Amino acid sequence: MNSDHHNNHLLDALTREGVLINVSVRYWRATRKLNAEDLGLDPDTVTDRLISLGHKKLLPREALEPFALVESRTHSLIEASTFPFLNGLGHFLPNAKLGEVTERLRSLEIEFGQARESFLSRYGELRRQAAADWSEAAKRLVADPDRLVATIEAAFPDVARMQRAFGFETHLFQLRAPEGLDLALVRQGEQEQVIAARQKAAEQAAAQIHRGAERFVADCVASLREQTARLCHDMLESIRTGKTGVHQKTLNRLIRFIDEFKQLNFVGDREMEQRLEQVRQEYLVRSAEDYRDDAAARTRLEQGLEALAQTARDLAEQDSRELVERFGQLGHRRLHLAA
Hints:
Helices cover about 65% and strands about 10% of the residues. By secondary structure, the protein is of the alpha+beta class. It folds into 2 domains: about 5-175, no CATH class; about 200-325, Four Helix Bundle (Hemerythrin (Met), subunit A). A 4-stranded antiparallel beta sheet has the order 4-5-1-6. Strands 2-3 form a two-stranded antiparallel sheet. The relative contact order is 0.14. Mean pLDDT is about 80; it is low at about 40-55 and about 335-339.
């Protein structure tokens, strides 16, 4: 198969099977970088080798905890539901996860908005309390506490600027390599000088995406297989070292993972998916209590998990070129159907 055509088919298949998503959570971090003068020190006598002034918190940690929690949940959701694309250019979100992820992001955005309104309504009081707290602390820290307190107070933005410091934004993009860059906005006199450079830039960008497409798809396959092996290892560790032996939460982890695997398996890794479904039918129809009461069944469960982990590791190390090429055929078939 021609390499350029193959990579184009891969991009077409990726476009068909998912989108790129970027989520930004932005909020005021309430920190101020102090310098020597803020502490009443002579900057010529302060050396970075011995003293690190660094960033100091203007507000207690709990004042911003709601935002930190939303940010953490958002990052966890994206990491668990997507694949990093081209070294962080974006995150690839398979269609099967699109509805669930966007709905959860909407809920997180609402939670973020409520936290923002609550914070801004209390901002004046928080600012006054922080000034009082810093005034007490400054008396113990520096020789000129008034200077330090004035510096801290000046670091608090006014309410209008504070509004702009908060944002929760979700952007979805369709994956497409550029075929050319629009010259409509380039002045006529510049076109001869610019057209070659812009066309070259477009070709280089397309080539970069084309080169990365095959590696990306192969990495997605390996990542899901490696996650399977790690989960089996964690389950075996829990079963063998836990006080209760087989716990229902441990079995439920694998049940949820199998469902998640199917949703994330946009490449079509049927071999791994079938093996997981086989494990579900053989070992997950029993309850944890059944396994605790039946030593032989527990032994079979552990052997099944060990076998699944080994299979997953072996598959992760295999060359997935055939699977990647088969996935690329999705884009090829789509072109023929469209024609």
